[in-house]
Design brief:
Elements lengths: L8 E8 L2 E9 L5 E5 L2 E7 L5 E4 L1 H7 L3 H11 L3 E3 L4 E6 L6 E2 L4 E7 L2 E6 L4 E6 L6 E2 L4 E5 L1
Antiparallel strand pairs: 1-2, 2-3, 3-4, 4-5, 6-13, 7-9, 7-12, 8-11, 9-10, 11-13
Length: about 150
């Protein structure tokens, strides 16, 4: 996973064996990532070999005093603009302008690296604008949907 360049969050579903898991990856700050798997949080940092290694919440709090404030501020802005986590092609759109959406609701499907990635709403809202089009290429960070 490439970090930096404005990386904030990525949501996807993965299948291991016969079970699907909802996975959300969020950048807390430049030092730490939060990975949520089916509502359970795990925290990671990069070592000197650029490998992600797990950290506990105690180390997280002591390693970066401002991380909680930054995460809360970012969360208050999250969700009004749904951005593409990866470069790929939109294969289907499941919403229309004016639809009411709830957190976790699938909005569209993005195909990237031969994998289908569900783009989901981060917060509740009403679809104000759909900027993506089925069959069209989007870049990482492009705004796909605006909510109000």
């Amino acid at each position: 996973m490439e970090r930096g360049n404005g990386f904030k969050t990525m949501k996807t579903k993965i299948k291991i064996g016969e079970k699907y898991y909802q996975v959300d990856v969020s950048e807390i700050n430049r030092d730490f990532l939060k990975v949520r798997v089916d509502d359970k949080d795990f925290f990671f940092k990069e070592n000197e070999f650029q490998e992600l290694i797990p950290v506990d919440e105690k180390e997280l709090a002591s390693g970066s005093e401002g991380w909680k404030t930054e995460a809360v501020l970012w969360d208050s802005r999250a969700g009004k603009e749904i951005k593409s986590p990866l470069t790929g092609t939109i294969s289907g759109i499941d919403i229309k302008k004016g639809d009411k959406v709830k957190p976790g609701q699938k909005l569209m499907t993005l195909i990237a690296m031969k994998m289908e990635n569900e783009i989901v709403a981060e917060t509740a809202g009403v679809v104000k604008e759909i900027k993506a089009e089925a069959g069209k290429l989007v870049n990482s960070g492009d705004i796909l949907v605006k909510l109000e």
